[in-house]
Amino acid sequence: MKLSFLLFAVCLGMLSCRTEDPLPESKEESFFNLNVGNKWVYKTYINPDFTNPQSTSTFSGRIDSVSIVSIVNIQGLTFAKQRTKINFQNSNLNGNVNYQYLRVNAKGHLVSYPALDNIQVTETGGHVLHPGQDFTYTFNNPISDGQGAPVIGNVLYKLQNEAVVNVEGNNYNVFPYKGEFTPVTTANGLLPKTQDISYKKGVGLVKEICHSVYSKSFFETRLVSATIIK
Length: 230
Prior knowledge:
Layout: E1 39-47, E2 58-74, E3 77-87, E4 97-104, E5 110-113, E6 127-130, E7 138-144, E8 151-159, E9 163-167, E10 170-183, E11 193-200, E12 204-211, E13 218-227
Antiparallel strand pairs: 1-2, 1-13, 2-3, 3-4, 4-5, 5-6, 7-8, 8-10, 9-10, 10-11, 11-12, 12-13
């Protein structure tokens, strides 16, 4: 499941964006498992310099426990209610519990809503967290310092070919959904960098890399354990 592991105020990502998928010709087989009782545990690591291959990632102290707690029907559409509890000692985030609502749309994309109260939900609405196995899907996300501020770059997201990654000593076959950040020519000092949101079919999020906009540092979210209900 896609989580929000942003520890700094300015970080590349898609958190403020919402997408509308065009209606597909037919529904694809679901790539995602949203069964009640599914549980995932993640650790977040920090690396100070993505440009240095020798730079070491260190554990930030943050552990997120994620679970699907119920299935709800809103406006004729079915959603899985996902709960995230944060364990982050000596942080104001410690003990926080967050919820989001997930569904797989007719095109096989995992989409989310932060809440369902007073929100119009549609088959094509919601925020696309991962496109499943849809290699035709792309998403361009302009990045700025805030509402009304000039755009400092764009992140173009596109699904990559299946790959094997090693996470916490385990090998996973994943489909990385990568976002290439390209700064505008007037944004002096900003570097191109790549977001990485890697899902394993039937399991969920295995690894996520989120870069800081202005520095060379990045956060890496790693799957520690999972309990999957078939």
